[in-house]
């Protein structure tokens, strides 16, 4: 079981997080910046538009799903397989599977938060900020669980 100091630290950080979130939510002095008309399109905007087109293409989603599923399947087979696989390869396959699953979860969390913000009419910066905050919260939860569960 975790020491009492770890539990107190986790509880204190959780309370601090709730207090900061409440303070930000109650703040009414936000300044709204009105857009002044269309800006010339830069190469960055063109890249974002291309990526947006790819993200809206069902074929890209299907291929990405197939590739990720195949990679995870091969990694799991190498990880649990009893065949003539060297010991280092088995451990490496386990780390690769865990890394891919972690990237998928973080990617979906960030993309979902970002796209939700954009669909509500918020700017790209707001979407990125909310996605980053969601990832930060996930990291804090992971650290708290690691401290509590030992």
Any descriptors?
150 residues; 5 helices; mainly alpha; 79% helix; 0% strand; single chain; flat
Task: Provide a descriptive summary of the structure in words.
- The protein is mainly alpha-helical and 150 residues long.
- It has helices at residues 4-26, 43-55, 58-80, 87-119, 124-149.
- It has a domain at 58-150.
- It is 79% helix and 0% strand.
- The protein is flat and about 65 Å long.
- It starts with a helix and ends with a helix.
- How much of the sequence lies in strands comes to under 5%
Main sheet attributes: strand count, strand direction, barrel closure = none
| Estimated radius of gyration | 21 Å
Write down the secondary-structure element order. HHHHH
Instruction: Please count the helical segments.
Output: 5
Total number of beta strands? 0
User: Could you name the ranges where pLDDT drops below 50 across 5 or more consecutive residues?
Assistant: none
Helix-residue proportion:
over 70%
Coarse structural class = mainly alpha
Mean pLDDT: 80
Ends apart, CA distance between termini: 7 Å
Shape: flat
